[in-house]
Amino acid sequence: MTIAEVSKKYGVSADTLRYYERIGLIPPVHRTAGGIRDYTDDDCNWVGFVKCMRSAGLTIEALIEYVTLYQQGDETIQARKDLLIEQRRLLLERIEEMQATVARLDGKIERYDQWNQRFREQMQNSKKET
User: Fold this and answer.
1) Radius of gyration (Cα) for the chain, nearest Å?
2) What's the rounded mean pLDDT across residues 34-55?
């Protein structure tokens, strides 16, 4: 796949894909004899993985560390697993914080609904009095 095709498929710019590769966020992409990036299914899987993890809030640094460990081979399997477990724990903490924020927003919205209802009732009562 060309960089343009991968860009379209995953909704990231070609510049972002090149950046991801340059900083080690994805392993080096396969290239044609002429040096043009030619994304394999494996390369695309990395792009999908990184996009998913970034959208969940994982840091670039954590993902670079994961890719680096992956490239070092099977002796890093436990380290990779530990890194993913830690990132999962952090993500669950963020989810709890977001759920608490949603609950707080729900409470505020409910209060506005109550205030609006009281205002409507007051308006109706004042119309009746006139």
Assistant:
1) 25
2) 95
Tokens of 40: 């394999």
Local structure of 31: helix, strand or coil: strand
What are the residues facing 31 on neighbouring strands? 37
Percent of the chain with pLDDT over 70: 99
Residue in the block written with tokens 């991801």: 20
Q: Which two tokens stand for residue 87?
A: 């990132």
Look up residue 5 and give its DSSP letter: H
Cα 35 to the center of its chain, rounded Å? 31
Instruction: State how far the Cα of 86 lies from the Cα of 108, in Å rounded to an integer.
Output: 33
> What percent of the chain has a predicted confidence (pLDDT) above 90?
88
Q: Kindly give the interhelix angle for 3-10 and 41-55, rounded to the nearest 10 degrees.
A: 40
Q: How many whole angstroms separate alpha carbon 50 and alpha carbon 56?
A: 10
> Tell me, what's the pLDDT at 121?
86
